[in-house]
Amino acid sequence: MSKIGFIGLGIMGRPMAGHLMAAGHELVTYVKGGSLNNELAEKGMVALDSPKAVAEQAEIIITMVPDTPDVEEVLLGEQGVIEGLKPGTLVIDMSSIAPIPTQAIAKRITDAGGEFLDAPVSGGEGGAINAALTIMVGGPEASFQRALPVLEVMGKTITLIGDHGAGQICKVANQIVVALTIQATAEGLLFASKAGADVSKVREALLGGLAQSKILDVHGERMINRTFDPGFRIRLHQKDLNLALESARTLDLSLPGTANAQQLFQGCAANGGADWDHAGLVRALEELANHEIGS
Amino acid sequence: MSKIGFIGLGIMGRPMAGHLMAAGHELVTYVKGGSLNNELAEKGMVALDSPKAVAEQAEIIITMVPDTPDVEEVLLGEQGVIEGLKPGTLVIDMSSIAPIPTQAIAKRITDAGGEFLDAPVSGGEGGAINAALTIMVGGPEASFQRALPVLEVMGKTITLIGDHGAGQICKVANQIVVALTIQATAEGLLFASKAGADVSKVREALLGGLAQSKILDVHGERMINRTFDPGFRIRLHQKDLNLALESARTLDLSLPGTANAQQLFQGCAANGGADWDHAGLVRALEELANHEIGS
């Protein structure tokens, strides 16, 4: 069992940290401008004064924070992890952040004598609670093997994609594919509905052929049953597609479908839907068609 | 066993008709401006002078022709099926044509004393050869039950979607979903490749989560292995998306993703790719990015 520093106790981080404690690991944390959640404190988690203080105690440090600047602040900022880093400490960033800055962060941690992995997840709150996250990892093979027993406590499909940044690249690719497959499902079912067909039967028939996808199955059903409680929130998918489109600009890459899907998410947000499940993308198309699926 | 009129002996129609003869049905046909394929003649198929002559002999008539005007000509034109139609003859149009004209064709056949089903297929040449087509049917339940033993000789997943036209609506929805899922796969893998990740590993990781689709599996592999022999030709998918976009205009429906995918197929066609497999959509994006997946 390891002494693990876990920074970032939000919707995802809380259950993930809970699994690690349940597995017998000793956890310390730093809570920015707040106090430690009672439930986690009762399970034995200890809050320290700074990420630096966390680094001085932990063998493994996991970060699970909202965005690129948050990771940079916790790891590289004043009183940050890098100031207290012991030789050989393994830093695992499980946040979903930009791939290119990730490579720079990895270099800073490695140069300071630590090891670094980017290990973003997919599977949402449900995946975190059920320890069934998909984890996409970038970094050296040896660090991956060292992290594996810890990652296996939180996730199911855990893949080493490549070197530093490759985990974040894979996560962005995942969010691109998911967004466009949601739009695929939305346009297909909306067409069928407005043309007068029974969308439930259309969905079933399509699941039997080349159009099959997990999204057509799960999100297609949400579109038909009108259940748009998250799930995965549109505002978070907007953040991820923003990463995709910013990275694409840096990479000289044109992603017309991704840009299109992002505009539809923005159309949802403009109609009060930033906290709908991302299957709610269909509602932007429904607005344009003046028609709701199944009506 | 029935006497079946089968009109339209192209890439799809030939193996489909072959399966029907192998199952013991007696087949007659009309070949427009040509002569009957030797192989089919040797198996016992007889060519008659007109669709009208076919109708005078057959209990069931199947059409498998390229587009809406072709179906209209064969069924409703001069010397067409409708002129020779016997009371109670079942007409099954297995072509992929426009849903709204299909309803008008169904009315003409029904008013003339026949029964009508629209029963377009997906699964391509491979599905036709292996008798594994997905068949999406529109029309009355009783006609569907009557057709089922014949359809089961050619296909596997056979679904009654709804009334006349619903089969064609479902087929169009299928082609919308397939095209956009191809674009989803293309943008995700191209992003990963241009950002420097191993696309094979990205594809594998994504297949384990919410991004999973049959297209990511099959067409994703084609994009990585650079195998763009059809399969399903871009020119045929262009025809289907044209149907989708024309119908959408009639229906007051906005399909921004479908329009986008169609433009990318046109970009492929402009570069000599009309006969590439539809996974070749990725090449239009690769042109824009000046980067080929895996390079």
From TrEMBL, chains A, B:
It comes from the Bacteria. InterPro entries: 3-OH-isobutyrate_DH-rel_CS, 6-PGluconate_DH-like_C_sf, 6PGD_dom2, 6PGDH_NADP-bd, HIBADH-like_NADP-bd, HIBADH-related, NAD(P)-bd_dom_sf, Tartro_sem_red. GO terms for molecular function: 2-hydroxy-3-oxopropionate reductase activity; NAD binding; NADP binding. Keywords: NAD, Oxidoreductase. The active site is at 171. Belongs to the HIBADH-related family. This is 2-hydroxy-3-oxopropionate reductase. The lineage of its organism: Bacteria, Pseudomonadati, Pseudomonadota, Gammaproteobacteria, Pseudomonadales.
